[in-house]
Amino acid sequence: MMVFDIHDPKYFDAAELQQEFTRIMDVCNGCRLCDGLCPSFNDVFDRIDVEDDKLTAAGKGKENPVMQLTAGDYDHVVDVCNQCKLCYPKCPYTPPHEWNLDFPHLMLRAKAVKFRKGEVAARDKFLSNTDGLGMFAGIPIVTQAVNAVNK
Does residue 82 carry a pLDDT above 60? Predict the structure, then answer.
């Protein structure tokens, strides 16, 4: 079950996140109503289809291709997600459904885990620091330079 309480120790547990990601992708793979909504779903379904083709070619067509996905596959999906949340109203399994699929919160949780582990680019750290960015943008020379470039 999805943990979305930042005070719960499971929230930042990478293994727990991987397990939840696999659970959600297993349900999503069987439904695919969100296919085409955003690059995240296109990416993950393409990856699942590649794994399915590999299993079929190896004579293991009855195995679940979602179980073949790696943390790297999931990381790429997280990086592509821009939190538009178009998937949430489209998904028939959002809470209060018994399966409780909340893809936007899963992506947010995955980004928080990556941030806590220090696995984010310097650009993302800079842009996510709104206080620092605000102070930087308030420096007169910076605002003058930005205004000059925009002209």
Answer: yes
- With contact defined as beta carbons under 8 Å apart, do 59 and 78 qualify? no
For 101-134, write each residue's pLDDT tens digit. 999 999 999 999 998 888 888 888 888 888 988 8
Alpha carbons within 13 angstroms on the beta-carbon side of residue 29 total 22
Q: Could you give the CA distance from residue 46 to residue 64 in angstroms, rounded to a whole number? A: 15
> Whole-angstrom distance between the N-terminal and C-terminal Cα of the chain?
52
Write down the mean pLDDT value for the chain.
89
Query: Is the pLDDT assigned to residue 7 strictly greater than 60?
Result: yes
Q: What is the largest CA-CA distance in the chain?
A: 66
User: Please, what sign has the CA dihedral across residues 81, 15, 91, 42?
Assistant: positive
* Residue 16: pLDDT over 80: yes
| Cα–Cα distance measured from residue 79 to residue 38, given in angstroms and rounded to the nearest whole number | 12
- Whether 69 and 48 have beta carbons less than 8 Å apart is answered as yes
Amino acid at 88: Y
CA-based Rg of the chain, rounded to a whole angstrom? 19
| Phi and psi angles of residue 143, each rounded to the nearest 5 degrees, phi first | -65, -40
Tokens (6 digits) for 60: 């293991």
